[in-house]
Known about the structure:
By secondary structure, the chain is α/β, with parallel strands linked by helices. 25% of the residues lie in helices and 32% in strands. It has a domain at 1-73: Transcription Regulator spoIIAA (2-Layer Sandwich), CATH 3.30.750.24.
Amino acid sequence: MLNLDRTQTPGIYQMKIIGAISESSDFTAKIENDVKELHVNCKAIVRINSMGITKWILFFRDLRKKGVKLKFFEVGVSVVNLCNFVSGMVEKDEVQSIALPFFCENCNTETEKFAAVDDLRATNFKLAPLTCPSCGQLTEFDGAEAHYFDFLTVD
Ligand SMILES: [Zn+2]
């Protein structure tokens, strides 16, 4: 499901994608003609199947063709993994913030932390350890760090 809202700035709209994206989801939205910039919040996406990927790519490609500037916020781990696997989902300069998965070996707790892509770029994608919210131990990044950021760095 797509929720679309006008923001206070003329021409800038906010979209929230909620739930699963599949062949049965209505991945369309009535975008007004005055749209110049679309901010897409991805936090509430639960999964995207292969038909959903196709819908996503076509939907955003059409908007880019119309000259709409896209910004993706709070892109979750599963969508990051997809973006690394499937080209054409996002362009690297469109992504504003992503989830980082951490895993605590001490208490087996998974934690996700959102980070601004500008901050990640500023530290050359070197991650500081995260203190586990359950037990207070330092946790490890839970992913292939060498490739997790490929979609933001590789042309
Ligand atoms: Zn812990």
